Amino acid sequence: MALENSDIQNKLTETFGENVFNFQQEKDIFSFEIKSDKNTAVILFLKNDPTLQFHFLTDLCGLHYPDNDENHQFAVVYHLHNWYENKRIKIKAYLNETPSIKTISNIFLSSNWMERETWDFYGIDFIGHPQLKRILNMDEMISFPMRKEFPMEDSGRTDKDDRFFGRTTTNL
Amino acid sequence: MSDSNINMVAPPEGVVGEGFFATKLNDVVGLARANSLWPLPFATSCCGIEFMATMASHYDLARFGSERVSFSPRQADMLMVMGTISKKMGPILRQVYEQMAEPRWVIAVGACASSGGIFDTYSVLQGIDKVIPVDVYVPGCPPRPEQIVDGVMKLQELVRTESVRRRSSPEYQELLASYNIK
Amino acid sequence: MSELLLPPEHRYAKIIKEKLNDDGSELSILNLGPTHPATHGIFQNILLMDGERILEAEPTIGYIHRAFEKIAENRPFYQITPLTDRMNYCSSPINNMGWWMTLEKLLDIEVPKRAQYLRVIVMELARITDHLICNSILGVDTGAYTGFLYVFQFREKVYEIYEEICGARLTTNMGRIGGFERDWSPKAFELLNTFLEEFPMAWKEFENLFERNRIFIDRTVNVGPITAEKAMAYGFTGPNLRAAGVDYDVRVAQPYSSYEDFDFIVPVGKSGDTYDRFCVRNAEVWESISIIKQALAKMPEGNEYHANVPDYYLPPKEDVYHNMESLIYHFKIVMGEVPIPVAEIYHPVEGGNGEVGFYLVTDGSRTPYRLHFRRPCFIYYQAYPEMIKGALLSDAIVILSSLNVIAGELDA
């Protein structure tokens, strides 16, 4: 018996009620949102429930929405995969301006570095993470480079003439 | 050796007589150095794969006297920097350069090593000449093995014509000082 | 504060102090990398050693962090392929095609069968070259240089095919939304056929060099084994997971680009050790050859090589100069005036090292709002410290090599 979207939805709403919401099919992935403080409970449930069996964490990443209201400034996105039924789901948890969420590194070992990367890029604090320090950037860095306000280019560059890149209004 | 097709390097200009050959020390040293450059491959990314191709049977860099790839900076003459050097990597590159014994030469292989390439970002060093002096730049993203070989040949030309005194000249000391290398 | 947050040297210093032996010998710290020649790539591991045995390891990564995801947020969709090239540069066409397929999924574009088959061929070629590099370099690390020199010629042959298709060797930047930028020339098929004739013989010989080689077996069997459960917990995918005995392959689980039309087996190993990883990759190369042959045999007639989507597919350059409509389309595509739906999608493909995923969030503008790459190397490299625990130093090199960690993919 294939695992239907409605089964997942029913099971989740049965157990978590208001904390899981906004279920929808996005292209080929079934997705929903959760309250950020319920992330470990929901994911643990999805992993251990004998019919759901979402035993593989495919991906974890952060998102920044500077234009949203203050409770939806950041988001953490989890992609889970059930290999038995070949079903993928996406879970999104929105966070406020001082983003923090519980770690799932004790549920999925693989999330350890992905959470570190998300911390490195967005400054999302994963509470309870054993080793939450920068992974890709230098330890000395103080800003979080994937936040929208952070410029892509190194601001200290001297070899670029803005006139040649259409960045000045007058071409003088 | 009659059945081999080994190319010998032509001797430098000089005076030939019976039983002797006189030439400038500079030329002899240059000749010897240029044809036994031991490369230190500092391969970080994509260009490193093209360097593998250059080293492999098809292009065979060994033909140019670079048979021995020296993985220890101490014994290397030619530092070949291939691939993106990030700011995190910069100090390490510099340390490797400082560990090399004089005379030492540097080839920046590929757009990333030469100028940062397409990675104009906060984390990438915009060209290795920000931290160490470079002798030859090889453009391309990544350069073909032919281009890398061409870069090595260009460097051989530089080495051949370099004065033996250059490394102790005030200009050279000044260059190193400008990079803050002792 | 957690112990793990300390720099490894300080953490190790405590352990060394505690474990001082009576005879005066003590544990030592060894810094492996980041420019260690045997790690071919930029990996740093700070090891705590008991003589030759590794007790603990702490990897540091990010030495070639190039901020792909930040760049992707600032580039129009068609300018992102060059970035995907440089992620896993051993098999860039797979990444290219994966990115185009992501966009096609976003825009609901149906790619013609012939173009799909061409894509399959080029992706399998990329898989062959990827495994070829990994396995031959594993040979080099165990002391057998010959195999590398021998099979690397065939990588050159594949490069020639790539050149015929797209003009580039390594970083291919191949394809367009909806197909390819041009039809494959007869020369490309000719080269492909010669490759298919010559390569199997060479690969058989390469296998013979290693598979029953006493030294190679001693160096690899039972070196760095990982159980299936551990591998799954650490997020392994691709050949490394299959070597542990789990037959998960995106090509089978979620067929894309008509993989369902082809008949192939997913080779699996048993113990997940270095030897199994080697054998699984070898077997996959044979499967790839068979897939390419099937694709060539089943190739639909005609010369269709892209979908008919003028809104997204760049018109031929000659038409741009002579044809008003083409010029408009060209302008619209290049200036990013084409309609992009607001959506969030995830598209996986089976890359050389496992599931390469593209998580794309769009907001209707000409650039992605967020593009996250699921990079298999990054995810499974976290298991490395555990895999080398208790191993000899020389085995650590072999394990790293057999995992085929690509620095570009690891550090993004």
What is the overall shape of chain C? globular
Strand content of chain B: 5-15%
Q: What's the CATH class label of chain B? A: Alpha Beta
Structural class estimated from helices and strands of chain B = alpha/beta
In total, the number of domains of chain C comes to 2
The average pLDDT score of chain B comes to 89
- The CATH H-level superfamily of the largest domain in chain C is Cytochrome-c3 Hydrogenase, chain B
CATH architecture of chain B: 3-Layer(aba) Sandwich
Q: What helical percentage do the residues of chain C reach?
A: 40-55%
Strand line-up across the major sheet of chain B:
3-4-5-6
* CATH architecture term of the largest domain in chain C: Orthogonal Bundle
Low-confidence sequence ranges of chain C: none
**Low-pLDDT windows of residues of chain B:** none
Number of domains of chain B: 1
GO molecular function (chain C): NAD binding; NADH dehydrogenase (quinone) (non-electrogenic) activity; quinone binding
Protein name (chain C): NADH-quinone oxidoreductase subunit D
Subcellular location (chain C): Cell membrane
EC number (chain C): 7.1.1.-
Account of the protein in words:
The complex is a heterotrimer of chains A (172), B (182) and C (412). Chain A has 172 residues and is an alpha/beta fold. Helices cover 20% and strands 27% of the residues of chain A. In chain A, strands 1-2-5-4-3 form a five-stranded mixed beta sheet. The longest helix of chain A is centred in the N-terminal third of the chain and has 12 residues, at 5-16. The termini of chain A are far apart. The model of chain A has no long low-confidence stretch (mean pLDDT 88). Chain B has a single domain (38-159, 168-177), classed as Rossmann fold (3-Layer(aba) Sandwich). Helix content of chain B is 34%, strand content 13%. Chain B has helices at 25-34, 46-55, 90-99, 110-115, 145-161, 170-178; strands at 15-17, 20-22, 39-43, 78-82, 105-109, 136-138. The longest helix of chain B has 17 residues, at 145-161. The mean pLDDT of chain B is 89. Chain C has two domains: 3-60, no CATH class; 68-374, Cytochrome-c3 Hydrogenase, chain B, CATH 1.10.645.10. Chain C is built from 18 helices and six strands. In chain C, a hairpin with a 2-residue loop joins strand 2 (44-50) and strand 3 (53-60). In chain C, helix 5 (113-141) packs antiparallel against helix 6, helix 6 (145-166) runs antiparallel to helix 7 (186-211) and helix 12 packs parallel to helix 17 (393-403). Chains in contact: A-B, A-C, B-C. The A-C interface holds A 26-29, 31, 55-59, 61, 63-64, 77, 79, 83, 86, 88, 90, 108-110, 112-114, 117, 121, 130-138, 145-146, 150, 152 and C 2, 4-5, 61-62, 65, 67, 69-71, 73-74, 105-106, 232-235, 248, 253-254, 343-346, 348, 355, 357, 359, 361, 370, 372, 374, 378-383, 411-412. Chain A: It holds the Pfam family Complex1_30kDa. Chain A: Keywords: NAD, Quinone, Translocase, Transport. Chain A: Its EC number is 7.1.1.-.
